[in-house]
Amino acid sequence: MHPRRIASLFAAAFLAFAAACGGGAPSGPRATPHGIPGAVAPAAAVEQFLRLAEQKQYLEMGWIFGTREGPVLERMPQGEVEQRMYGLASVLEHDRFAIRDQQPVPGGLGTETQMTVRIHNRTGDVDVPFTAVRGPGDRWFVEKIDVEAVTKLH
Question: Helix, strand, coil: what percent of the chain each, to 5?
């Protein structure tokens, strides 16, 4: 048999084998045009999110904001994500911030962490609760932000 014919038969057999083994979507983190969604740790997710908000990178914020299912940008239209992240960035406008404490959420089975972030803006300092969750590929996403804590000052 001709070597090219053997190679193409081998390739076809491998593809059939991979399909039979459920070779669907990869289980690890997915690459996006802006890197890998989420962050390596809860505090890193909050830090990245706030830095992107400061830089007004609204779509990129949508790769860090999400749920256990992954980033919001994978489930919502880009225009809607951009509008929502613009709103959050406007409320979270700051000169500097510091993550003050971090603790697992009771009943979260190690997949949810709450942090208090001290945000300094033109009206003063405010402590803002953030919740991060572990999602696909063992990546962390900002899931909840208590924006009321910030809006009380405005």
Answer: 40, 30, 35
Across the chain, where does the E strand assignment appear?
66-67, 70-71, 96-104, 112-121, 124-134, 140-145
d(CA 71, CA 113): 17
Residue 133 CA from chain centroid, whole number = 9
CB 52 within 8 A of CB 60: yes
Q: Which residues of the chain have pLDDT under 50?
A: 1-29
- Residues 106-121 have pLDDT tens digits of 887 889 999 999 999 8
Spatial contact of 83 and 50, defined as CB atoms under 8 Å apart: no
Helix crossing, 42-54 with 78-91: angle to 10°?
90
Q: Contact 66/38 with Cβ under 8 angstroms?
A: yes
Residue with tokens 């697992």: 104
70 vs 144: CA distance, rounded Å: 14
